[in-house]
Amino acid sequence: MKDVLIVIPCLNEEAHLPDLLAGLVADSGDALIVVADGGSTDRSRAIVADMAARHPNVVLLENPARIQSAGVNLAVRTHGAGRRWLVRVDAHCGYPRDYVAGLLAAARAQDATSVVVPMVTAARGCFQQAAAAAQNSVLGNGGSAHRRLTAGQWVDHGHHALFDLALYARVGGYDEGFSHNEDAELDQRLLAAGGRIWLEPALVLTYWPRTAAGPLFRQYRGYGRGRALNLLRHGSRIKLRQAVPIVIAPAVAAAMLGALLAIVATPWALVLALPALGWAGLCLAYGALLGWRAKSACVAASGWAAMVMHVAWSLGFVGVHLTGARPGPLPRGWGG
Q: What is the pTM assigned to this prediction?
């Protein structure tokens, strides 16, 4: 696999790196494995350095820009020369055996320039179980093809796995102005450049969600902001599963206004609160149903986790339009 560059953008992933790196080294032959570290303050860097001392195809790369998009681009610019394929591996996920070999086989069999994979969320602690249940359900993923087990198909987006490195470089790689949704934004440019994205169902990865409400909220607020900037840049039509959450933050704001008006006994108080109350009731009822099916009180809290995700995503999306934020210029290719 000398023609393969594997890039792992990383920030404080000491819990996942040992098993991840051991699996990649065992399964990926002589592929170059670059960990682009964004300034970890835990043992992540030491773990990579120890692995690199024993395996010359493992490299630790400083990523001063910190965010994932910049880390992958820097690794490609630094180590991508002469290589055919780029594999992005996220440290916060678990991967099946022979993952890289499977990606290469799928790309060659389908004549694809990019291969994406399904993602199933798993959990350990109680809050993580609630978040995982929400993210695995239509309540949290809106029926997105790559967030459920499905048949192989051509798609316009999915969880990033493998790229034709020449095409990746030619379109300018990830936009480093996007801290979130950089993957969907890049897919737009890849398709516009003639790329073909294949969703490979045999290579399902496991994602470990945030373990507390605060980090989950910040993550999904970033997703909402990234989606808004992506739509502003490319002018594509928003999908129904993305359009529905947009109204959540305004509905919650209306409910808060209704609560204030209730103090003066205005008849508009209940009217203003109804949309938010209906949304909250739906989330809580669906979460309770998931918990009943799983026989788990933690899973039953998935409705609350979904509400955190919805409000955060909506705030991020609406915030872009309220503040007048706009995406920067399109990335420029650097060869290929």
A: 0.86
